[in-house]
């Protein structure tokens, strides 16, 4: 079965640079989520989109922005990168079908961002 | 606010032993959803099981089983006859109906030794 695709898988940037992470959800999934996982920590929710509209917002820095496009893929844009942004960034997707409350989130392999 | 606690930071067992991972949660919602995810050394997050708060029936799926106790706000996960490939970090997560985010516990590192 098709899974969530994230690109790139690894990214190395310098401080103050920008980065764009891409996420392609499972086909027919309409909701996309972004999470950040620091070393040795649990994943922290950043933001989510349902049918191209922001549906929930967590602890996402103002330097970060995200959107979901008409084909349901999503991009997380990160500017003025800091050393503390080094982490594993996960995208997840789900299908709400007729009941938004029962969707299970399936995660992609993650993008490992290293800021030097 | 929702919160998930996994008190066991690390567990080490010998292959074929049974192992139970503990999870305690806090929420003000009357309807919510609980999950277990596995994160092997390769890093991906793999969905294992989901439980709805309105269904307390405990189930077994292969070597996995879970014990959902609403009265004690616990959602424990058991692996029977553990295998070396079960070595991973296991995360318990909670989703309230009022939002779409998952709140994860701190994770339990399970090591299964041959």
Sequence-ordered SSE layout with sheet pairings:
The complex is a heterodimer of chains A (116) and B (114).
Chain A: E1 5-7, E2 10-13, E3 19-24, E4 31-37, E5 44-50, E6 53-57, E7 64-68, E8 74-78, E9 87-94, E10 106-107, E11 111-115
Parallel strand pairs in A: 2-11
Antiparallel strand pairs in A: 1-3, 3-8, 4-5, 4-9, 5-6, 7-8, 9-10, 9-11
Chain B: E1 3-5, E2 10-14, E3 19-21, E4 24-26, E5 32-39, E6 46-52, E7 60-61, E8 64-69, E9 74-79, E10 88-96, E11 103-104, E12 108-113
Parallel strand pairs in B: 2-12
Antiparallel strand pairs in B: 1-4, 3-9, 5-6, 5-10, 7-8, 8-9, 10-11, 10-12
Molecular structure report:
- The complex is a heterodimer of chains A (116) and B (114).
- By secondary structure, chain A is mainly beta.
- Chain A has strands spanning 5-7, 10-13, 19-24, 31-37, 44-50, 53-57, 64-68, 74-78, 87-94, 106-107, 111-115.
- In chain A, the strands form two sheets. In chain A, strands 2, 4, 5, 6, 9, 10 and 11 form a seven-stranded mixed beta sheet that branches.
- In chain A, a hairpin with a 5-residue loop joins strand 7 (64-68) and strand 8 (74-78).
- The radius of gyration of chain A is 14 Å and the shape is globular.
- With 114 residues, chain B is mainly beta.
- Helices cover 0% and strands 53% of the residues of chain B.
- Chain B is built from no helices and twelve strands.
- Chain B has strands at residues 3-5, 10-14, 19-21, 24-26, 32-39, 46-52, 60-61, 64-69, 74-79, 88-96, 103-104, 108-113.
- In chain B, strands 2, 5, 6, 10, 11 and 12 form a six-stranded mixed beta sheet that branches. In chain B, strands 3-9-8-7 form a four-stranded antiparallel beta sheet, with no helix packed on it. In chain B, strands 1-4 form a two-stranded antiparallel ribbon.
- In chain B, a hairpin with a 4-residue loop joins strand 8 and strand 9 (74-79).
- The termini of chain B are far apart.
Multimerization status: heterodimer
Major beta-sheet overview of chain A: 7 strands, mixed
Strand content of chain B: over 45%
Give the overall form of chain B: globular
- Our Rg estimate of chain A from Cα atoms comes to 14 Å
- End-to-end C-alpha gap of chain A: 36 Å
């Amino acid at each position: 079965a098709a899974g969530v695709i994230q690109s790139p898988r690894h990214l190395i940037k310098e401080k103050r640079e920008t980065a764009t992470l891409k996420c392609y959800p499972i086909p027919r999934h309409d909701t996309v989520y972004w999470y950040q996982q620091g070393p040795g920590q649990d994943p922290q929710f950043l933001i989510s989109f349902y049918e191209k509209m922001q549906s929930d917002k967590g602890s996402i820095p103002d330097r970060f922005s995200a959107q979901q496009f008409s084909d349901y893929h999503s991009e997380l844009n990160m500017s003025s990168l800091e050393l503390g942004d080094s982490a594993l960034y996960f995208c997840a997707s789900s299908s709400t079908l007729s009941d938004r409350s029962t969707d299970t989130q399936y995660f992609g392999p993650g993008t490992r961002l290293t800021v030097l | 606010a929702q919160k998930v606690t996994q008190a066991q930071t690390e567990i080490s067992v010998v292959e074929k032993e049974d192992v139970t991972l503990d999870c305690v949660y806090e929420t003000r919602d009357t309807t919510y959803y609980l999950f277990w995810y596995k994160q092997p050394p390769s890093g991906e997050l793999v969905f294992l099981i989901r439980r709805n708060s309105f269904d307390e029936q405990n189930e077994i799926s292969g070597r996995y089983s879970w014990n959902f106790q609403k009265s004690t706000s616990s959602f424990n996960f058991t692996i029977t006859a553990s295998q070396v490939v079960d070595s991973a970090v296991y995360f318990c997560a909670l989703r309230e109906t009022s939002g779409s985010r998952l709140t994860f516990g701190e994770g339990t590192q399970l090591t299964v030794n041959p």
